[in-house]
Amino acid sequence: MRLTKRVLDAEIAGEKDRFIWCGQTPGFGARIYPSGKKVFVAQVRVGKGIRRVKIGLFGPYTVDKARERAEAIIRAASEGRDPQREKREARDAPTVGELCDEYLAAARAGLVVTRFKRPKRASTVAIDEGRVARHVKPLIGKIRATDLRRVDVQRMADAIAQGKTKGIFKAKPRARASETGDDSEGAATIDPTVKPRGRAVVTGGAGTAARVVELLGGIYSWAEKRELVSGPNPAHGVETARGEAKDRVLNGGELRALGKTLDKNEGKLPMPVAAVRLIAMTGLRRDEACALRWSEIDFAGSCLRLESTKTGRSIRPIGKMARDLLQSLPRLSDEWVFPNRSDSGRADLKASVAALFDDAGLKDARSHDLRRTFGSVAADEGYSDATIAELLGHSRRGVTQRHYIRRPDAALIAAADRVSAHIAAVLDGTEAISGAIPMRVPGTNADTINAAMVGASGGAEEGDAAVLPPRSNN
Question: How confident is the model over 395-424, as pLDDT tens digits?
């Protein structure tokens, strides 16, 4: 007998549950309860056992729709799968928000690695937390992770790009490194003694959308390796627009204006002023400068031996002006060059450094533009992209460089010395600025500088000359 609507309508409930089965589709049937409720089921064999999978209630489910579902369950069982288990797993599957929380917990425990095969740093995890909380969860957080489709991610990206997630949020306690003090090796934890810093102003935009989609794609890749999700990554193929690479550099007049501001505020803001000077004369990232330890300074070797940077451990050559600056700083802490007020960790000088730029009339410039300026001046001095990449800590040389070379060669130190002396002289007003910085070498442009700064050149190969001679003045 073929199971049809007419057959089910004619069936009357009894004192006990009973089943009626379809003669046309073996394994497809309906369960009739004493209450009169009729529920479609599919009965299959999985291994040595029998699985009876509930499909749905007769009425909301038509016979034809239930039959299609039963046939899919029967096919899955014939392929060796367990439909009942799959249904249970689908029901218990985490939402996108819950999956993100699991990823962030693993990242805080040091179990998520970057493309450099190192655990994510505490500062990076804190940024990820903000993107999840302010963009991902409000837009797609309630969708089951296994049900998320590319179109859902595309709509999220479009909404972020249009500024639909913008707002002002109360800041949370900062993440800090593990007790070892090495945030590249330890877990990112939240320090309850650190008070929230003001508020977070979220504006969204195309750049933010691209980074959120990239983060979500990484979360799904991480989850797929742990069998928390399966199937195509829903973030792959999503259209996003990235902004143009920034090429803002400070010219000679702007450097001098900044130098005057630093002189004016040296007594009131000694640490921020020293940090800005150090960044200008070394090309360090702001976080690298603020997190500098006394133990990482090799005065004899004219270099910094940074234990934790964006690319892992890094050796940076420094010039005489930078060495003199570091030697002149008071030791306010046994560990940190720029300690916080309680000497429990490094200082975070972001706001005060930004205030110095604003005071100098450079509201559109920040500390990273000094790093870019350092690279630009190096290019003006005639140094190659590979040399600039090494000065800025983007060198990607071979095994010898990574594991055996313990100090930069004399040519690199000479390059750092020349560039830092030039910048220091302009900051202090002891060098004329008629030839405004930057003054491009023929064939050098902003794209070249950006390429060097992001390591696009890949660094010099082993055996290559590390530095080109400075350009001739003729």
Answer: 555 444 554 445 578 889 999 999 999 999
CA distance 133 to 153: 16
227 pLDDT exceeds 60? Answer: yes
Query: What stretch(es) of the chain map to CATH 3.30.160.390?
Result: 5-92
pLDDT in tens, 99-113: 999 999 999 999 999
The domain made up of 5-92 has a fold known as: Double Stranded RNA Binding Domain (3.30.160)
Instruction: Mention every residue, 6+ apart, whose C-beta is less than 8 A from residue 281.
Output: 318, 319, 321, 322, 325, 374, 420, 423, 424
Helices 270-282/320-328 angle, 10° precision: 160
What is the CATH code of the structural domain delimited by 252-453?
1.10.443.10
The helix/strand/coil state of 40 is strand
SS3 content of the chain, % helix, strand, coil (to 5): 45, 10, 45
The maximal CA–CA distance of the chain, rounded, in angstroms, is: 107
DSSP state, residue 37? -
pLDDT at 158 over 70: yes
Within the chain, all domains assigned CATH 1.10.443.10 are found at 252-453
Residue 316's SS3 state is: strand
Give the chain's length.
474
Amino acid at 34: P
Other CB atoms closer than 10 Å to residue 64's CB: what's the count? 9
Q: Supply the pLDDT for residue 116.
A: 75
What is the amino acid identity at position 280? Answer: A
End-to-end CA distance of the chain: 101
Tell me how far CA of residue 210 lies from CA of 134, 166, 214, 368, in angstroms. 14, 15, 6, 21
Tell me how far CA of residue 41 lies from CA of 11, 59, 88, 183, 380, in angstroms. 16, 14, 15, 54, 77
- pLDDT for 55-88, tens place per residue? 999 999 999 999 999 998 888 888 888 777 777 7
User: What residues contact residue 287 under an 8 Å CB cut-off, 6+ apart?
Assistant: 123
pLDDT score at 399: 44
For 169-187, letters b (16+ CB in 10 Å) and e give eeeeebbbbbeebebbebb
With tokens 């002396």, the residue in question is 421
Peptide bond into 438 cis (omega under 30): yes
The first and second tokens of residue 37, run together, are 């409720």
